[in-house]
Amino acid sequence: MTSTITHIVLFKYRPDITWHDFEAHFASFTGLQRKCLHPRTGKPYMLSMRMGKNRSWEPFSKGMTHGFVLEFASQDDLDYYLTEDPVHLAFSQAAGPLIEDSLVVDIRDGILFGPKAERPIGADETKGSCHCGRVVWAVKLENKEHVLCHCDTCKKLGGGPYSCNQIVPKEDLKILEGELNTYTYKGASGKDVRCFYCGNCTSHVYHHQDAMPDKVIVRTLLLDGGSDMTAGGEIFPEGRLKWVRDLADSLQDGLVNGEKR
Ligand SMILES: [Zn+2]
Ligand SMILES: [Zn+2]
C-alpha cells in the first residue's frame, strides 16, 4: 500500500494586508477541500486540510506566520492540484499578491530516503529533451508551429539547411533536468547571443539574445511531437537554400535511402 502525500505549506503574509483581504483569503483557502474536484470522479480529492497561525515561541519560524497541512492520496492527485486544478489555480493567482514568502515541503510518512518527485508537464506545456536525454525541459507554446530560420549562423551551428524555433517569454521555458553549457557569439544586432546546449550530446536547447532580454528562442524540433508540428513561418528567408523552397516537389523523383521511389 502506498502511503499518502502530505503537502506542507508555510506562508509569510505581506504586512500591509487588510482584515478583509485576510478573511476572504482564508475563506477561499478553507473552501478548497470542498471545491477542488477530481477530474475523473468529479468528487473532492483532498483527504484532509489543517491550517493555523504560528504560535511557536521558538525563534525558528523564519518569519512564516501561518501553516497549512494538506493531505492527498497520491502524487498524481497532488500534481493535478498544483498544475491543473482550475479552482486551486484561481486561488493561487488571487493569493499571490498577499504572500511575501513561502516554504513548501512534501513528505510521504516514514519515507526518509529516495529521489524527489518528478515535476509534471503541465497541460499547457510541451516537453523537450536532448539527444542523450540528460537535459529535459518544458515550454509553453502559443501554437504548435515551427518558425524556420535560414540564417548562416543556424546553418553553421546546426549543420542543417535551417533551424526550427519559436520565440517565447523567458519564464515560459523551464529546464527540469540536466545542465546546459553556453556558447556566446555576436548576433546580427551586434549584441551578444548565448546558445544553451547539452554539454554531453551538444543538442541545442535554446538561445538568448541581449537584443531581446525577456525572450528565449527554443528549438522546437527537440520537443515531443516536434516532427508532427507544421512550419508556420520563417525568418531570414533570403538565406533559404534553393532546394529547400520546393523540397517536396524536388524530391518527388529523387531517391529515398538510395533507392527509387
Ligand atoms: Zn544531451
Ligand atoms: Zn538563425
UniProtKB/TrEMBL annotation:
Keywords annotated in UniProt: Lyase, Metal-binding, Zinc
Q: Does the keyword Lyase apply?
A: yes
Q: MF terms per GO, please?
A: carbon-sulfur lyase activity; metal ion binding
| InterPro entries, per the entry | CENP-V/GFA (IPR006913), Dabb (IPR013097), Dimeric_a/b-barrel (IPR011008), Mss4-like_sf (IPR011057)
Its domain of life reads Eukaryota
One Pfam family, short name = Dabb
Sequence ranges assigned to domain Stress-response A/B barrel in this UniProt record: 5-107
Every CENP-V/GFA domain range: 126-244
Keyword Metal-binding on this protein?
A: yes
Similarity comment text for this entry: Belongs to the Gfa family.
Protein name listed in UniProt? Stress-response A/B barrel domain-containing protein
Species of the source:
Myriangium duriaei CBS 260.36
